[in-house]
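Researcher: Please generate the 3D structure of the following complex. Treat every line as part of one assembly.
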Amino acid sequence: MRDRSHILACCALVAGFAAPVVCTAQAAQRLPGELAWTVGYDPKTFDPAKVDDEESELVRYLTAGVLLRFNRSTQQIDPSLAESWTLSPDGKALTLKLRSGLRFSDGSPLTAKDAAWSIRRVLDANTKAPVAEEFLDASAVTVQTPDEKTIVVHLAKRVVGIEKVFDEIAIEPANRPSEARVTAGPFFLGDYRRLQYIRLKRNPYYQGSKDGLPHASGIRLDVLENQEQMIRLFLRSEYDFIDNLPPDYFELLKHKAPNTVRDIGPSLNTEQMWFNQAPASPLPDWEKSWFRSQAFRVAVSQAIHREDLARIAYLGHATPAFSFVSPANKTWFDHNLSVPHMDPSEIKAILARAGFHLEAGTLKDAQGHPVRFSILTNTGNAARAKMATLIQQDLAALGMQVTVVTLDFPALIERLMHSQDYEACLLGLENVDPDPNAMMNVWLSSSPNHQWSPSEKTPATPWEAEIDRAMDLQATSNKLAERVQAVDRVQQIVVDQQPFIYLVYPNALVAVSPQLLGVQPVVQEPRTFWNVENLSVQGAR
Amino acid sequence: MNVRRIAFALLLAVVTAAAAIVMRPGASYARQDRDALFASSSSDHLAGTDAMGRDRLVRVSAALLLCLAGAAAAAALSTLAAAGIGAFGAMGPKSFGWLTLLACDAFLALPWMFLLMMVRSAIPLTTSPTASAAITFLVLAALGWPACARAVYRGTKELQKSEWMLYATANGLRRTQMLRILVPNLLPLLLPQFLISVPAFIVAEANLGALGLGIGEPLPSWGGMLLELNNSATLLQTNWIYLPVALLTVVLLLLEAITVEGS
Amino acid sequence: MRRFLSICQWILRAVCVIALVMIGTTLLVRFAPGYLSDAREMDARYAGEAKVELSTLAMQSRSPSQMVRAEIQTWFHGDGGISRQYGVPVLELIGPRLAVSGSLLLRALGWSWLFAIAGALLSSSRRRPSFLWQVPFTLLLVIPTAALATVCLIAGIGGPVLVMVLCLAARDFKFLHSTLRSAWLDGHVLHARSQGLTGGRILIGHILPNLVPRLGALASLSIVTALSALVPVEVIFNVPGLGQLAWNAAVNRDLPVLLAATMIMAVAVTFAGMTRLQTTNWNNA
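Model: Done. Output below.
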C-alpha cells in the first residue's frame, strides 16, 4: 500500500503541476506604433450615421472626418475638414469652406459634393440617424454646394450650438457609405473580430498628411469588460491608458504605479437621487404626498452628508454637489448659487412644520404612517452602492427607514421608464455636452426623461412651469448673457425645490502609460484620446 | 472523546462566541465609524473596520449566525427534497423514473435567474432585509435539488441491484420499508451534497444581490464578504478581509466532522 | 436491441427536455422585468431609435405561444434566429464558442477528476480522517469561483483551466472521499484487512469495482457543476466561450442567444445523465 500510495501521490502532484495553463483572452498581437485600450462591448454599428450607443460613437470619433470638431480641452469649436465657417445673423444659414487637397483614406479626393451627400444622408428620414433630431426639423433643412469647396446648410429653425452638431456628422464618399472602411478621419476600420477586438489603421491622407498626423500607426480596441483583467494588462503595458477608472482601482494603481494615475478634478457628470413624483405611479397616495412635499425633499437633502459620500464612496475623488452644473463647466457654473446648510434641529423643524413627527425613534407622517421607502440603484457600481448605504444611515438619524435595492439595468429601466413602480432612485448622469441645452430632455416637464415625473401634459407645479420657460428661453436666445441668466435661474430653482437631490460630482480619473506621448487628459469625454491624432507610443515615431 | 463530540463542542463554542459578540452591549453591525475606515485592529474594533467604518468582528459574527442558519436550513431542505424525489423516482414505476429524470434535466437547464427577477418584482421594495434574506434562502432551497436528485436516483438504482436489496425484496418488504434501509446507504451521497450546498448557498445569496434579492444593507452578508475577494483593490487594504473565508472553512470542517465522520 | 432501445429512450428524453427548456426559457425571459426596456431610453440622443425597436419587439412578443413558435421556426431555418444584441445569426455566434468552451470543460473535468480521485484515495484509506487533505479542499469550496479566478489573474498563476479544476476537484473530492470512506468501513473490507490483505489488493479487488458504478452518478453532478462554473471563469478571464456569451445574453435579455445556450445546456445535462460505466458489479458480502 505504501508503494501504491506513494505512486498515487506522485501522480496527483504531477497532475497538479501539469494542469495546463490556457491562454486567456485571444487578443491580437500588438503592432509597432499601435495604440491600444479597451471598450466595454462591441459597437452595435460602424455606420457613422446610425450611431446610437457609446462604443459605436467612440469608433466614429476615431475614424470620422468631420467639418467642425468640438475641442474637448478648450470647449470651443475648432475647424477640421472645414477651414472656416460663418453663421448668418438669424442663425439659419451655416456656410462652411473646405480645406484644399483633402482626400479620403483610399486616396479619392474629398469635395463639397461628398460633404453635402453625407449631411443629406443624415437628414434623410430613411437613414434614421439619431443626430438628425438635433436639427429640430430635419426634413426642412437643405444643403447647397455653390462650388467645390463651399457647403451652405439652410435651417428651418435656429438651433443653439448648431456647429457642435457637425462634430457628429462623418463625411463619407458620396454614394459609397463604407461603414468606417473609407474615411476622412485619422483612422479607418481595418479588422473586426466580434467580442475580441476592433483594429483601426492609420489614414495616410488625413488632413493632407499635415505634420505627419496621425502619429500612431493604428489603434487596437480590445472588447473587455472585466476591470481586474484591464488593470493587469495595463500594468503589463498591453494598454496605453484607462479612460474611466473607478476610485478604488485608482487607489490600487496609485499604490502599484503612482506615475500613471491622474485625478483631473471634478468631471461634468453628476450623481443624484430623486423621489418618484409621477401621478401615474402605483405608490399609495400618502407616499406620493411625502415625495411631493418640498419640505420632505429639502430635509432629506440636508440630512445627507455629502462630504462623507465624496470621502468614503469615492475615496476623496469627488466633490459635493448641489446643482446639475459641475464647477468644471466654466461657462455655466453659477458661483453665486445660494445653497442652504441646515443643522439637525433645523431639519427636524422643517419636517415638523410639514406634519411629520417622531414616535419611538420612527418618523411618522400626520396620518401615522411610518416613513419607510426604498432607494433603487443599479448593480455593478460599487460607489453608488456605498452612497446608498451611507444615505441609509444618514436618514436613519431622522427616523426614516430606508431599504437599499440594487437591480440590474434593464429591470431598473423598466421601473423608471415604464411601470413607474419605485420610490426613490440613485443614478448618475453623464454630461457629454457642457451646454445645458443638451439637457432639455431632462428639464422640460413634457419630456419622457423628466425623471421625477415624466411626460407631464402640463407642468404639475409653478416651479416646473418656470423651469420650462427658462429652458425655452435659453434654447431660443442668441445672447449668451441672457442664456446664462436663464440657466442660473433653473439652478436656483433646483436647489430650492430639490426635484433632483444632487450628491457629488465624481472626479475624472484616468491612468496613462508613461510610454504614451502627446496625452493631455481633460474632464470631458473622451478624456484621454480627444486628441488621438497627436498621440504616439514612445520609441515608435 | 471522539472526533464528533469534539467537533460539536467546537462548533457550539463558535456559535456561542458569535452570539455573545453580537449581543454585547454597544455592539452594532450597522453603526458607521466614518473616521475609521479600513482601520486595523484596536481595542474598539478587535478585527478592524470595513470600508464603511463598521466593526468587522461584529459583522462577521452576525453574518455567521444569519447566513449559516439560512444556508444550512436551505441546504438541508434542498438535500431532503433531492433525496425524496430521487429515491421515489428510482423506486417507483419506470415511467415515473423517466419523468423524474426529465424534470431534473429541464430544471437544471432553465435560466432561473429570470424567475428570481420575477420574484423580486413581486415582493415590495420595502421588504425588510431579514425577510428578503429568508425569501432568498427559500428560493435557493427550491432551486438547489435537481443535480443531487439525479445522483440520488442513479445511486438508488445501483443499490436496488445489490444483493441485500434483492434479498429484502424477496422477503416481501414493502417499498416504504426498503426506503428506511436505503437512506443510510445514500448518506455518502447526501451528506457531501449538504456540506457543499452550504457555502454554495452563502455565495449564491450574495450573487442574488445583483438581482435585488439577497441580504440587504445594513444586515451583514457572509457571501458579500466572500465576494470582496473579487476586488484586488480591496485585497490590498487589510488582511482581516480573509477572516470570513477562514471562519467558514473552520465551520465547514467542524460540520463535516460532525456529520460525515464516524467515531 | 437493448442498447438500441436505450439510445432511443435517451434521444426521446433529450428532445422532451429541449422542448421544455425552449418553452420555459421563452416564458421566463419574456415575463422577467427588463425584456421590453433598453438602457438607451435614458439617453435623449438614442431614446427615439430605442423606442421604435422596443415597440416592434413588443408587437412580436404579444403572445408567448407565438414567440415560441417563431423561435422554433428560426431553428428550422438553420440560423437559430438573429441576436438582439449583435444583430447576427445566432449560429454564427455559437459555433466558434462551442469549441472553446467544450475544450475548456473537457480539460477541466479530466484534470479535476484525477486530482479528486488521487486525493480521495489517499485520504480515505487512513484510519483517522486526515485534516491535511480536508483543509485545502474545504478552503477551495469556500472561496467563490469568481474570487478564485480573480486571485489567479492578479497573481498571474494559471488560467481558466486551473480555476475550474480547483473548483471541481474540491466538490468531487468531498463526494469521492465520503464514498470511499464508507467503502473502507464495509464489513467485508474490514474482515479482509484483519486477514492481512494489503491495502492495494483491497483497493483494486474490492473498493474500486464497487466504486466505479457509482461514478456515473457523480459524473453527472460534476458536469453540472462545471457548466455553472464556466460563466464566472470565462467572464473574468475574458475567454470567448459560451459562458461569456450566455452571461452577456442574460444581462441584455437576448432571447435567441439565451435559447441556444440553454438548449446546449439541456443536451449537456441529458448527456451527463447517460454516463454509466459498464463494469462488473461486485456483490457486497
